[in-house]
Amino acid sequence: MISSLFRRSSLAGSHARLSVASNRGFRSDLYGTNNWNWTKKDDLAYLRAMEYFEPRPPTVKIAVTGSSGNIGYALLFRIASGEMFGKNQRVQIHIFDIPPMIEKVKGVAMELYDCAFPTCEGILVTDDIERAFADIDVALLVGSKPRGPGMERGDLLRDNGKIFQSQGQALNKCARKSVKVVVVGNPVNTNCLILANNAPDIPLSSFCAMTRLDHDRGLAQIAKKAQCGITDVEKFCIWGNHSPTMFPDLSNATIYGRPALEVLRDVNKDEDIDKWYRSEFIPAVQQRGAAIIQARGASSAASAANACLMCARDWEKGTNGGWTSMAVACNKEYGITPGLFFSYPVVCGNEGVKIVDDLPAFDSFAQEKINATEKELLSEKDAVASMLPN
Ligand code: NAI
Questions:
Q1: Residue 86 and residue 154 in one domain
Q2: Cβ contact 174:130 at 8 Å
Q3: Is 316 helix (H, G, I), strand (E, B) or coil?
Q4: How many folded domains does the chain comprise?
Q5: pLDDT tens across 168-217, in order?
Q6: pLDDT confidence of 234, banded at 50, 70, 90?
Q7: Quick one: which H or E segment has residue 328?
Q8: Alpha carbon of 77 to those of 3, 263, 306: distances in Å?
Q9: Phi-psi region for residue 8, left (φ > 0), alpha (ψ -120 to 50) or beta?
């Protein structure tokens, strides 16, 4: 079942307008009019005139899967309100979910519609993945099958692998070749590997698996311990898999531009900070998802949605030289087996996502952590080898 709701302009209309790349921000029906002398007659004409005088960037089309789920619900309204790409950036949202959830998703779309967000140009609700991915600029792949009772990790990998295999093929066929893809559904690194491998016409650099939530969780813990602001903490990162083997690494981190561990020692004079780092901080970040489930009775949703939003925003708008963490296609950086999607410290800018290079060699503690998370990713890759045709 497929339904669609559009506001202001239909997708078909937008497609026609978008086809003239250089005019994508203009309304063609305004050319040749006497808008310079125009006086306000009605609101629509006023809006059109404003678009003529103040052209806005081309509309961005964003597909979100798993839209009826907890993260989807926390994510969609923020995208529509302009929090992802700014208040001057119109968006069209393609909301995808599986057929049993489509009625629920229609309800979500009705609520989105009722918010009357000026930045939300159109909403498409569909259970057809090719329609969802048609001509999109950004894909946020949240939907995945949760782990059921008695389900082995291998079963979870294979079941979700099938979802990401078909989504990769659909992306390859229908999305813009410049699409940026953020995978959120778990097991996120390996889902992303399967997805990218099944979309051979889209560059590997267009895919990432989300480790931003782990990164932000780490930042918040450091700032609390150092009694400083979040933005005082820099060069923190997550290495490896989005799983309890991830390595939240403080060895390059700074606070107020000084080595973070040094500042932490100054602020917590009576505490063994190396011990805190190894036996409290790292496990706390690794196990934060489980701790939230235990406290809330449900998995992280608003914070995961926020991380997804920030990841896509930073990828598009850049990090101004600052570090963030993203699991990206590895090409032997820091000795990791090529072909894995591995979380690295990255900087986003005009040239896309760049892995931070030339960091000092890992000490034996860090190397052990890196080896463990790499080993886990390699075993996940082995389990889904039949879904990696390329
Ligand atoms: P949820 O259970 O509330 O929603 C799951 C969504 O996936 C639903 O919309 C459902 O219809 C959809 N879905 C189920 N089977 C599907 C299929 N075969 N194809 C496509 N979509 C399907 O889950 P929630 O809380 O929204 O989490 C979504 C995913 O995000 C989960 O895999 C979760 O583990 C993961 N996650 C990832 C985080 C990260 O940091 N990378 C953090 C938190 C969650």
A1: yes
A2: yes
A3: helix
A4: 2
A5: 999 999 999 999 999 999 999 999 999 999 999 999 999 999 999 999 99
A6: very high
A7: strand 324-329
A8: 19, 39, 11
A9: left
Asked if residue 364 is part of any domain, the answer here is yes
Q: Which residues pair with 247 in a beta bridge?
A: 239
Choose the final residue of a domain: 163, 191, 209: 209
Pocket test for ligand 1, best of 142, 167, 216, 328 (most atoms within 8 A of CB): 142
Residues 218 and 185 in one domain: no
Cβ 142 under 6 angstroms from ligand 1: yes
- What's the Cα-to-Cα distance from 374 to each of 106, 148, 287, 334, 371, rounded to whole Å? 41, 26, 18, 11, 5
Domain limits for position 260: 212-385
**Both tokens assigned to 283:** 């496990």
**How far, in Å, CA of 354 to CA of 346, rounded?**
5
- Is the whole model's pTM more than 0.85, yes or no? yes
Query: Distance between CA atoms of 272 and 268, rounded to whole angstroms?
Result: 8
Contact 318, 348 (CB under 8 A): yes
154 in helix, strand or coil? helix
- Does ligand 1 have an atom closer than 6 angstroms to the CB of 65? yes
Q: Which residues pair with 165 in a beta bridge?
A: none
